[in-house]
Amino acid sequence: MAELRRDPVTGNWVVVGYKTVKSDSVGLCPFCPENEHLTPKAIREYKDKDGSWLVRCFSAINPIFVIEADLKKRGEGIYDKMNNVGAHEVIVENRSHTKTMSDYTDRDYLLLLEMYQERILDLKKDKRFNYIQIFKNHGELTGSYIMHPHSHVLSTSALPQRIELEIAHSKIHYIQKERCLFCDIIKEETRQNKRVVSMNSSFISICPFASRFPFETWILPRFHADSFENLHDEGTKRELVGIFSDIMKRIEKLTNAYTIVIHSSPNVVEIGSHDEEHIPIAEHFHWHIEILPRDFRTSKYKREDEFYVVSITPEEAAKSLKEEKV
After folding, report:
1. Residue 137: phi, psi to the nearest 5?
2. What domain range is 166 assigned to?
3. What is the pLDDT of residues 116-161, one digit of tens each?
4. Who wins on pLDDT, 50 or 26?
């Protein structure tokens, strides 16, 4: 079984020994209607009045994290590791194989966002999971090999490195100024109006000041909120749909490959050592959606928002390298 290993230099957790299993369904899209037998049984489905599914969620065929295991945290000298306990689900976003987000209707977006919220809320009931991450890879440059529109849900006891950094820096800002870092960013971006792409009464979209990718865009609520999954007001949801749809139409005119990641608060009240100030994450963290376009200029770089997943263990790699004749 694969396991999580902590890098003692950076503190980042890496999934080591993850093996993929090739599908026998050559030439068939497992996500298309009438091919449901090629995927695990649905965990959740939204259906139309005729009983046909509109959005499906099921366990991944090749899960990075597995739910049927104990954490079994252990040490190996100075090194820390644990079992890759968690959940890995796939959300098929609609029935069409060729539809992309620029073609989505408001109803498509609403159903998808509601499925995202439902899965986060459900998985947060399991207190072994400290973080639930929603992300979507679209296009070959992102590593996606199934073109049918779909998203991933990862639940794990370890936090992605970028989320840890965001929480740490937002906490420092709050301690210094007693204000949310993201709220301050929104105020400054609105004041300068140099990186704002669009805005409505509830949301703003910006190209962040220190963008990692060309045309990187964030969508943030203009009100303070730490959890995407707790957005319940229907009018506010529709405003999110409006700005999300607008941005994706613009993005897809520039590139056919992108990653979308929802940064919501972890499944813990606070993070930090015993000697740090105890401030609830809800006070200083601010949920947002990051859209990361990919092209030939950026495809060689790894994103910071996902876990590194390595198929070969370092022990196997060292053995192979030793045996290699030179």
Report:
1. -105, 125
2. 3-323
3. 999 999 999 998 899 999 999 998 767 677 899 999 999 998 888 8
4. 50
User: Using an 8 Å Cβ cutoff, are 173 and 179 in contact?
Assistant: yes
Encoding tokens for residue 1?
């079984």
Of 203, 220, 217, 297, the closest CA to residue 251 belongs to 217
What secondary structure letter does DSSP report for 38? G
Strand segments, DSSP code E, in the chain are 3-6, 13-16, 42-47, 53-59, 74-76, 79-83, 86-92, 131-138, 150-156, 196-199, 203-206, 217-221, 258-263, 288-293, 308-310
The residues with which 75 forms a beta bridge, in sequence order, are: 80
CATH number (domain holding residue 231):
3.30.428.10
pTM, full prediction: 0.89
pLDDT in tens, 162-212: 899 999 999 999 999 999 999 999 999 999 999 999 999 999 999 999 988
Residues recorded for the chain: 326
Q: Do the Cβ atoms of 80 and 13 come closer than 8 Å?
A: no
Q: What is the domain count for the chain?
A: 1
**224: helix, strand or coil:** coil
Q: What's the token pair of residue 320?
A: 């192979």
